[in-house]
EAL domain-containing protein (Heyndrickxia acidicola), 278 residues
Amino acid sequence: AKDLGGNRFQFYTPMLDGVAFRKIQLETALRRALAKEQLLLHYQPQLDLENGRMRGVEALLRWNDPELGIIPPCEFIPLAEETGLILPLGKWVIKEACRQHIEWLKAGIGPVKIAVNVSVRQIEEEDFIQYLKQVLTDTGVSPSYLEIEITESIMQNIDQSMVILHELKAIGVELSIDDFGKGYSSLSYLKHLPIHHLKIDKSFVEDIIAHPTQGSIVKAIIAMGHSLGFSVIAEGIEEEDQFKFLAEHGCEMGQGYYFSQPLPPEGIQAFYMKMLNV
Ligand code: C2E
Ligand code: CA
Ligand code: CA
Ligand code: CA
């Protein structure tokens, strides 16, 4: 309140519009969910496009809040990035994925390679490498069954990133550049990155058939990826035509609703058994 003299006080109500309110509400709830371990990972099968085998899964965060209901990653991940909650959240994801890998193994499933999304902010955290090594040791997961998906924004801070990426490679985990084509990848840096896979963003896959220029771009990305020594994975495959196009043009791997939605752990178990029996 501002003293305007005399007994007249003018109150300023904080400018909490709906958007700001929702953010505060979500941040509080996300902290609580993290503390209470109310978050979940679902897993989307990634297939070898040549033979249809499951080559692994991508872990995707799911949050069903007891009060707020289902909140999609596109809403809470940016918030987590903004507030720094992505750091503890990201740590939890790595640990949970490793735990699940071992649980599947014990149930006779796999070894299932798990790709986790890691934010650039997280990778730049000082103890990231050490944390990762510790989790791998504690859970007993072989590093070759863990894959890390990072976006092109890793190239913003290329000198620092290079060191970290090399350390990751030395540990033996695989690296993919996620959402490739969407950002501003500097192609001249790309060839120096110690990565294994390029992941074509689903926005390109979406229009492959309807828009021939998109098809040409996708062909070019695949060819470029191969010439740099990377294998290529496509996301967002929803239709048979898209799958066929990608397979015909040498894209090694793919994922999308055409094959399977992201599934809870039991769903992956069922998917895996079904694939073994066809
Ligand atoms: P992303 O890494 O590009 O993940 C792919 C998204 O596409 C996922 O959305 C997935 O459910 C969705 N998807 C899969 N198949 C199809 C399809 O055939 N068609 C379409 N239209 N979409 C498909 P989701 O699960 O909502 O996640 C959104 C984004 O949130 C992810 O995009 C990723 O950037 C982020 N995210 C999710 N989990 C994590 C996490 O554990 N850590 C971090 N840092 N980010 C995460
Ligand atoms: Ca991803
Ligand atoms: Ca994407
Ligand atoms: Ca992404």
Summary: Residues 86-106 form the longest helix (21 residues). The CA atoms of residues 234 and 254 lie 5 Å apart.
